[in-house]
Automatic annotation (TrEMBL):
This is Wax ester synthase/diacylglycerol acyltransferase 6-like. The keyword Iron does not apply. It catalyses: an acyl-CoA + a 1,2-diacyl-sn-glycerol = a triacyl-sn-glycerol + CoA; a long chain fatty alcohol + a fatty acyl-CoA = a long-chain alcohol wax ester + CoA. It comes from Nicotiana tabacum (Common tobacco). One of its GO terms (biological process) is triglyceride biosynthetic process. One of its GO terms (molecular function) is diacylglycerol O-acyltransferase activity. The keyword Cell division does not apply. It is a single-pass membrane protein. In the N-terminal section; belongs to the long-chain O-acyltransferase family. Pathway: Lipid metabolism; Glycerolipid metabolism; triacylglycerol biosynthesis.
Length: 500
């Protein structure tokens, strides 16, 4: 299929090309996936909140953008509807007026009433009430020279999701940064390590080796069939249990409030190493614990307190709560390739190529908090042994090809509305970095415009884990984790996109 092939940006026009060739290069059609993000019920915008350790100089930002981001075809092109081709949309290169994309509001810091963090939070929430102007390339950058509790200034980068998937967009943003210790070097992103096969069946010789391979294939086949059937059932009728964090119809049109918290990656690694698991296992287990404790309290409002033990709590039985995990199916472009593309006009792989994975959360209280992580690991291991993401992507693409944008948009919309939340994570750079000479304190990527009201992102190394707690009265590898102000903290953090 055309959408499965690599999608390359149009080449920069040169004098030796015929006029028709230049027009073809500059008027490439939007991919079906990019077109999907223009549907009224799926008008998604990506937000990147960047904290700076110094005041931001708008003029420096503008000068640097000209030589980097504006060289990317998607950030210097309009999306134009072609009425001659049944309303299809195409990319048309244009001159970019940075004054229309860089927003620098005048803020009187003396009148913020001692709450600059609240001002920034409200500013970003107000952005989520608006959409980008289609008469210009679909991105803007807001520079807030407001000193907050963890930064001297804040930049908010807003991009329409039709320009690319989250992995591509954040990789492109990181390609615009440099190491603070070595200003001529781009950041280093840890590569994906192939996990060793932890099974004795592949080391067994003889007939048992072939039996183990057949059994592994059968499990992969069975898990994939079950997951695809669950995907189709969710598309048609299977809904999550109604809970205080499940969005109501029309949630995609409501404003969002963005909250982030920073925790120590060393704490996560400590648990990971002690239990011989991965960071993802720990992050998912912590999320599951936070949701369980939060919902127990919410379901207990106005009732007699039943306690917070495994057998005595306020949670209804058999809660179905699933997260839609959006999986990037392309090999990572890499920030070096994107940096070269902007500096040397080379090509880089680009586009939206995303599959769905339905990730179930077990909502229950556990007397041993480490059980949350053990359950999360079992869930993740089960999902790793499935081709769900590839097949759900293919189903969406087939629906797009044979039934059109409306049907494909309806499928994606129903999947999200019938589940409760989204969960994702990104790996940050290994070094301290700066954005066009401004040292960065944090980077918090997120999005708005989708039907979920609650979305959890974790960005290890550079930013955030949304649940800043570990384990109460439990010792792991000799270290005691305390649960301070747990209830108040969850009120702020568990519902990252709670509708205001």
């Amino acid at each position: 299929m055309e959408s499965i092939r690599w999608r390359k940006p149009s080449l920069k026009p040169i004098q030796t090309k015929p006029k028709l060739a230049m027009e073809a290069a500059e008027e490439e059609l939007l991919s079906p996936s990019a077109r999907l993000f223009h549907e009224p019920n799926f008008n998604v915008h990506v937000i990147a909140i960047m904290g700076s350790k110094s005041r931001i100089n708008p003029q420096v930002i503008k000068e640097k953008l000209v030589h980097t981001l504006l060289k990317h075809p998607r950030f210097s092109s309009l999306q134009v509807v072609d009425e001659k081709k049944n309303g299809e949309m195409k990319w048309v290169r244009t001159m970019v007026d940075l004054d229309k994309h860089i927003v620098v509001p005048q803020v009187d810091e003396q009148n913020l009433q001692g709450s600059p963090d609240k001002f920034v939070e409200n500013y970003i929430q107000n952005l989520s009430k608006t959409t980008l102007d289609k008469s210009k390339p679909l991105w803007d950058l807001h520079l807030l020279n407001v000193k907050t509790s963890d930064a001297e200034a804040v930049a908010v980068f807003r991009i329409h999701h039709s320009l690319g998937d989250g992995t591509s967009l954040i990789s492109l943003l990181l390609a615009c940064t440099r190491q603070t210790a070595h200003p001529d070097k781009i950041p280093t992103i840890p590569g994906n390590k192939k996990m060793p096969i932890n099974s004795s069946e592949y080391t067994t010789k003889g007939l048992w080796q072939y039996f183990a391979k057949v059994w592994s294939f059968m499990r992969l086949f069975w898990n994939t069939i079950v997951d695809v059937l669950m995907f189709m059932a969710t598309t048609m009728f299977l809904k999550d249990t109604s809970t205080p964090i499940k969005g109501k119809p029309g949630s995609e049109f409501n404003p969002r409030r963005f909250v982030y918290r920073t925790v120590s990656l060393d704490d996560l690694k400590l648990v990971k190493n002690a239990l011989n698991m991965t960071i993802n296992d720990v992050a998912l287990g912590v999320t599951q614990a936070g949701l369980s404790v939060y919902l127990n309290r919410r379901f207990g409002e106005g009732r007699k307190n039943k306690g917070v033990t495994e057998k005595n709590n306020n949670l209804p039985k058999n809660i179905r709560l699933r997260s839609t995990l959006l999986v990037n199916l392309r090999p990572s472009t890499g920030i070096q390739a994107l940096a070269d593309m902007m500096e040397k006009d080379t090509e880089a792989k680009w586009g939206n190529w995303i599959g769905f994975v339905l990730l179930p959360f077990k909502i229950a209280l556990r007397d041993d908090p480490l059980d949350y992580i053990r359950e999360a690991k079992a869930t993740i291991d089960r999902k790793k042994n499935s081709l769900e993401a590839i097949y759900t992507f293919s189903i969406s693409e087939l629906a797009l090809r044979f039934f059109g944008i409306k049907t494909s948009s309806s499928i994606s919309h129903r999947i999200i509305t019938n589940t409760t939340m989204c969960f994702s994570n990104l790996v940050g750079p290994q070094e301290e970095i700066g954005f066009y000479g401004h040292p960065m304190a944090y980077l918090a990527p997120s999005s708005y415009g989708q039907p979920h009201v609650s979305i959890t992102h974790t960005n290890f190394k550079l930013l955030l884990s949304l649940f800043g707690f570990m384990f109460h009265k439990q010792t792991v590898s000799g270290k005691v984790f305390s649960l301070q102000n747990f209830t108040n903290f969850l009120d702020q953090v568990v519902l990252i996109y709670w509708v205001i």
